[in-house]
Amino acid sequence: MLNEQVAKLLNTQINKEFYSAYLYLDFANFYKEKGLDGFANWYQVQAQEERDHALLFMQYLQNNGVAVSLEAIDKPNIVLKENIDPLKAGLAHEQYVTDLIHTIYEAASEAKDFRTLQFLDWFVKEQGEEEKNADDMIKKMELFGSDAKGLYMLDQELGARSYTAPSLTL
Ligand code: MG
């Protein structure tokens, strides 16, 4: 039986991951409208990954006999104007998600819930990768994005990203 507070935070995280997927679809749509299909593809793949994260939290709770409660997903409300805006909002969002994961980690640690800590280890590492990816994209955009040819090359690069299932299995 999972600690009640830990289970509650894990259930909330399902919603946060679905919101992340929703937010990244919003970013994908922004780029799609601008004709930057490569950027749109990158965020569509990212949205699929976030959905996977949500399902992993869901399955973890179910594997431990906890009933899942799905809540309403917020409307993405970030104002996007410049091409770099989603990239910056993406980094800020991942930093926020890192904080959420760390809060659950802290609660699990206090409750001596070693099973959940082991489950969360994958997400702690994953968040490090997410923040690095987001930061790298901002740097590349700042370096090459203001030039039409550079932006085209960057769009091609991001268009090559394809979906792979998460390395964590439950
Ligand atoms: Mg995630």
Present as ligands are: magnesium ion
Low-confidence stretches: none
Shape: elongated
Count of DSSP-assigned helices: 5
Ends distance: 17 Å
**Biggest sheet record:** none
CATH evolutionary superfamily: Ferritin, core subunit, four-helix bundle
Strand content: under 5%
Q: Which terms summarize this structure?
A:
170 residues, mainly alpha, 74% helix, binds magnesium ion
Please explain how this structure is put together.
It is a single chain. The protein is mostly helical and 170 residues long. It contains five helices and no strands. The chain has a single domain (4-159), classed as Ferritin, core subunit, four-helix bundle (Ferritin), CATH 1.20.1260. It has helices at 4-33, 37-63, 85-110, 114-144, 148-159. Helix 1 (4-33) runs antiparallel to helix 2 (37-63).
